[in-house]
Amino acid sequence: MAGIKKVAVIGAGVMGAGIAAQIANAGVPVLLLDIVPKQGDNRNAIAEGAVQKMLKTEPAPFMSKAAAKLVETGNIEDDLGRIAECDWVVEVVIERLDIKQDLYRRIDAVRRPGTAISSNTSTIPLARLIEGQSEAFARDFLITHFFNPPRYMRLLELVTGLRTDPAIADAVARFVDVVMGKSVVRCKDSPGFIANRLGIFWMQHGLVDALDLGLTVEEADAAMGKPFGIPRTGVFGLMDLVGIDLGPHVNASLAGLLPASDPFHAVNRDVPLVNRLIAEGFTGRKGKGGFYRLNREGGKRRKEALDLATGAYRPQSEAAIPEIEAAGKNLRALLSSDGKVGRYAWAVMGNTLAYAASLVPEAANDIVSIDEAMRLGYNWQWGPFELLDKLGPKWVADRLAAEGLPVPDLLRRVGEGSFYRVQDGKLQYFTVAGDYADVVRPEGVLLLADIKRAAKPVLKNGSAAVWDIGDGVLCFEFTSKSNSLDEQIHDLLGKTIKLVREQYKALVIYNEGKNFSVGANIGMMLFAANIAAWPEIDRLIANGQNTLKALKYAPFPVVGAPSGMALGGGCEVLLHSAAVQAHAESYVGLVEVGVGLIPGWGGCGELLLRLQANPALPKGPIPAPARAFEIISQATVSKSAAEARELGFLRPSDGITMNRDRLLADAKARALGMVEGYAPPAKPEFTGLPGKSGAVAMEMAVDGFRRQGIATPHDAVVAAELAHVLTGGEADLVDVVTEQQMLDLEREAFLRLVKTGGTLARVEHMLETGKPLRN
Predict the structure, then answer these.
(1) CATH of 446-591+637-681, one of 3.10.150.10, 3.40.50.10840, 3.40.80.10, 3.90.226.10
(2) How many other C-beta atoms can be found within 10 angstroms of the C-beta atom of residue 415?
(3) Every domain range in the chain assigned CATH 1.10.1040.50
């Protein structure tokens, strides 16, 4: 089939609306349809209401308000014929076979031949969905199982049938991958597919084993969380998150589909406590509480947890679990512990890992698919086979056998070996045939992790490394804690600029951490401030300014490639890059006011330049400085790359990559495309800045907020320094402020602030608690 230019989504519930929003986030028009409501005159009320609700939802399904304009709404009585305009139709209606099949017949009657049709089902086999449908429909039909919320969950499970046209499946997979940003895992048409088949088994074990062994919910979630690289919600926190009332329905559906021999049946039992919680409205975060709740009685906020033995709430325990503390990072030690927490960890994970090994090739062709599904569908840091390698497959197999439990054939056959290995610099996995095969990435995917397996860094120090990613392009990787920026990074960046100038074509700044960079290492600055080493702080700020300006004026393209948070100094790196290729989920901002400071590495001037060039802002001395003041003084952080573009952190010409795994390849291509004829920008001059009168106006606005209790006393101190910089200091309206003068204003203001008690208190509080101090 040709490319997908427009999509129809039928079903405007939470899931369907979220899928429609993600399609719109990708810049693709989408038609969202639902039934005609039984009451009211607006026949499109359900779909329209879903869009309006999403515009108010947090975390936001839409990456920008502009994306919402790409969603057209309608109803299936009046507008079903409009799916003839679409290249792909996604069905997201109630999980009832009769309703779905009736809808399919109606779709088949009005769609264009060759239009892809898919269901978001996770409980009904594909073979049953297409029973009684036309041959043409069966050829164009597949399952595309998104995970909720569709914007943020990267997994897409794709299921095809024996009659599905491979070209249709490939076209949808390509669109979902490249355009929507999902990682596509191909699954067999088996019950629950991969992630929910295994994830529900794990959660059910987590629930019943905690009850059987007498654990508290805190103990169970601590055991199932950090040690195994699983989100700290663990099992009970996850049930609260997804909704406790969903569990019995999903379990019943899975139990009805699985053969009698499946291990799930042994652990799937009725839990009276769960039934009582559901009956009384304690369904988790969406209800009155769940296994955890926030008690607001008496105007106070108290964290409480459910006592699994009594069914009553009690204060939530924050105490460390001795068995987990004693084991540290040694998973075998935890699973071998004879205490109830160790026995619980083995009961849950021993069974789960064995179950995972039994699902190849029934649910998936290979172990890579299962690991990918659990990493992306349940946010596990390591997939089950990666966890088996950490423990030692033979150790697990021997323990299962010693306890009289079945040892899956795949686990038995790997023997003393491992499920993954590196051979000749390539990652390989153990196959069902008993040999090893290379892990093959999709076309257009370039991972730094793969490069690092096969090569050594070109340059390296304690906070950064530089890698040759081919075709004359180097990649600069932050490796410090939280990718915070320090002097070692600046030093290595200076050396890298020199090396690229002499031997390479371009530079990409990128890493595969959770965040691009959370900003400067403020701990070093606090140490210097505590011993009154003011010249040293001045030198550190000047060094950072000089390094980033060297980056800006390098005679070769520099492309910043962020994902996650790019805050403070991380944002300033992007502001000084020749271009940015950002992952769609990039959260960019200059947040220095949170620690009582202002941007000191050129961020004020660079953002001001962007805003002065913004045609959407009125011309004149005030609009651009006032907008920069608003953004920086409020520590505004974009909620997406699209919003970063709207705020001015990204240029209109900067690129956005939807799929995280494609970011490095896209950034590299961007850099290479800029090489021919590249010249660094001319040094700018700031003209028409409002000077003291503009600064006074900004300070008066902050003073008004302070009187209302919105701004704190130290906010006013920081804001005054920020206003002084953005309005040009002592300059008059007719004066020209050079880039260096703007840098000097930044540095001087930074130094004045770092000497104040209010700023030092903010820095100390941030380092101790990770939260800003409102002083």
Answers:
(1) 3.90.226.10
(2) 12
(3) 195-430
Residues of the chain with CATH 3.40.50.720: 7-187
Selection from 75, 53, 97 nearest residue 9 by Cα: 75
pLDDT classification of 270: cutoffs 50, 70, 90: very high
* CATH architecture classification, 7-187: 3-Layer(aba) Sandwich (3.40)
735: left (phi over 0), alpha (psi -120 to 50) or beta: beta
Instruction: Give the pLDDT mean for 222-241.
Output: 96
The 8 Å CB, 24+ separation contacts for 701-705 are: 702/633
How far CA 86 is from CA of 107, 111, 729, in Å, comes to: 12, 8, 56
Single-letter residue type at 205: H
**Hey, what amino acid is at 599?**
P
Per DSSP (E only), the strands in 602-703 are: 655-657, 685-687
Stretch 308-330: mean pLDDT: 93
**What's the mean per-residue pLDDT of the chain?**
95
Amino acid at 535: P
Instruction: Give the pLDDT band (50/70/90) at residue 532.
Output: confident
Half-sphere exposure (CA, 13 Å, Cβ side) for 623?
11
Helices (H) and strands (E) in the chain, counts: 33, 25
Give the three-class secondary structure for 110: helix
Helix, strand, or coil (residue 284)? strand
pLDDT in tens, 274-287: 999 999 999 999 89
Q: Which residues of 613-631 are buried (b: 16+ CB within 10 A; e: fewer)?
A: ebeeeeeebbebbbbbbeb
**Of 381, 508, 484, 367, nearest to 433 (Cα)?**
367
Task: Please state the φ and ψ torsions of residue 95, each to the nearest 5 degrees.
Answer: -80, 65
Local structure of residue 506 (DSSP, 8 states)? E
Average pLDDT over residues 555-564: 98
Q: What is the third-level CATH fold of 195-430?
A: N-(1-d-carboxylethyl)-l-norvaline Dehydrogenase; domain 2 (1.10.1040)
Q: Return the closest-CA partner of residue 120 out of 245, 17, 267, 247.
A: 17
Residue ranges, CATH 3.90.226.10, the chain: 446-591+637-681
Q: What does the pLDDT look like over 425-476, one tens digit per residue?
A: 999 999 999 999 999 999 999 999 999 999 999 999 999 999 999 999 999 9
